[in-house]
Amino acid sequence: MTPKQQEAVDAMRIHGSQRAAAAALGVSRSTLRSRLDSAKRWEDAPEGQKSAIAVSGLDIGTAKHGWRVIQHDDGSRDSVFWKAEAPAPEEIIESVRGAFEGLSVAPNIDPPSQVMSDLCTVYPVMDLHYGMLAWGKETGGADYSLKEADRDVAYAFAKVMALTPASDTAVLLLPGDTLHADDNRAETPQSKHKLDVDTRLWKVLDNGIEIIDAMIQYLLAKHARVIVRVMRGNHDEHSHLVLSFAIAERYREHSRVEIEKTPRDLFMHRWGRSAIFAHHGDKAKPQQLALYLSDVCEFWSSTRHRYALTGHVHHDQAKDVGPLRWESLRAFCPPDAYAASMGYGARRALQSLTFDKTDGLVLRALDPIERVA
Predict the structure, then answer these.
(1) C-beta neighbour count of 325 within 10 angstroms
(2) Residue 268 main-chain phi, psi, to 5 deg
């Protein structure tokens, strides 16, 4: 265990909570939690692993596996390969609990003085991939990290909202791959494809909650009511739940915000004669999605204008599938090294889609997120 890790353990023992311990040490809660996580893994590690780490000069946070040579009394030697175990379920639960600690309730703020009662605006933030690391010289696109993502969200929302009417209702959609990685292994859950990530999951979760909170605050300044839905993607099959439950906790006493929590991988919302749907887009082709929606949507037959919004493939596609208008929207993030090597384009966008209760989609505003030096 390193001195900083021991210091974090001692601070927790003295102060009793992560928030108080972090304040006493003058570090962020994410930094404290990272040190506590490493300290616990050191305490739980087998003695052979501890010995190997001590000899190598590494610490428990960087040493994942290696060979350990065992010298016997008779002069013979054996080589033993060791590998760090994956986090136990209870450790993951503790990590989630820690991300919620000290999360204050969002203050109620005054609604805008005037809104257009017949309008609803949907803000789909497609494939944010928060926590992704990309180098523009390698990818042909923009650099990307937590810092660049925060800056892009602030700029894009300001621009799109300036072009969007003051609708009564705003729907903030995060339809999957909001986070780039599902855990600290930095790989896709199904294919195990290795990912380029910016820092550890603790910090990504901390900052991710804050950036979604900022999006909601932007929308509350313009719209009378805000509906939020965080959905599963193929990159964040489990970690998206932390964002959803944390935001629900933050806005638990806010009268103008509704956080939609459901285990279903589908968003459905009715606005007058319009039916608005969203899905990540990784498990159903447009024809299959249209057939499924017509079967499960209780307001399908009583609506005239039907729109399904998906992402996943990171580029624009659109077509009419029978009575359904299906669109695959551009990603918010630029390409990473893998996407660039596969020839995927660097076009990005944040947009808003405004629906009238009678006429359906009547207005679209878009920011291509082009940075000019």
Answers:
(1) 18
(2) -135, 130
Task: Please provide the DSSP assignment of 105-144 as one string.
Answer: PPPP-PPPS--EEEEEEEEE-TT--BTB-B-HHHHSS--B
> Residues 329-347: what's their mean pLDDT?
87
DSSP-assigned beta bridge partners for residue 82: 66
- pTM score of the predicted model: 0.76
Q: How far apart are the first and last CA of the chain?
A: 44
The b-or-e profile of 28-39 (16+ CB within 10 A means b, else e) is ebbbbbbbbbbb
Residue with tokens 């550890």: 200
Mean pLDDT score, 43-68: 59
What is the chain's mean pLDDT, rounded? 87
In this structure, are residues 299 and 319 in contact, taking their beta carbons and an 8 Å threshold?
A: no
Percentage above 90 pLDDT, the chain: 60
Strand-strand pairing, 274-278 and 305-310: parallel
